[in-house]
Amino acid sequence: MAVEKIKKIVPYIIILLVAAYFYHLAGKFRFSAKPGHLGPDFWPKLLLALTMVACIYEMIKTIFFKKIVNKEKVSAGEEPKKEAAQKSYPWLLVIGTLLTVGYAYFVTTLGFVLSTFLYFFLFMIVGRYRKIWAIVANSVVGTLVLVVIFMKLVYVSLPLGKEPFSAVTFFILGILGIK
Hints:
By secondary structure, the chain is mostly helical.
């Protein structure tokens, strides 16, 4: 069973090593830090550190706390507890991928606010969630939270969009008090 657990943690080891390498590279950014401001290395290093922590957590969980089903017992007729049969929808994965590509393509035309709202909305529809008010609320709140995080905390310039879509962006930014 040790071999089974090793096979399960190999992807986490690979991601951990890649994240550690990029963390090392992010430490080599050349910049002049302004007093009281975060440098350009802060956010990449934070995300990479969180990625490494998540990998270590998953490796520990897999090694010490997950039980691997013995395939010999299953083939001998001793079936493990059956989980509810799950349907597979590979075409939803394709549609989700196309939505993501479309988001990247249209974000400069529609602007971050409108394209992110539409992306969240359509992604939940494709994901087979059917409570329309919850979809609208999550899309609005998710979009507004991202705008505030990127523009107020991280100071990232987001795509405003082209006319007439930029008017929506300026309206939302005005409501949020972002100049």
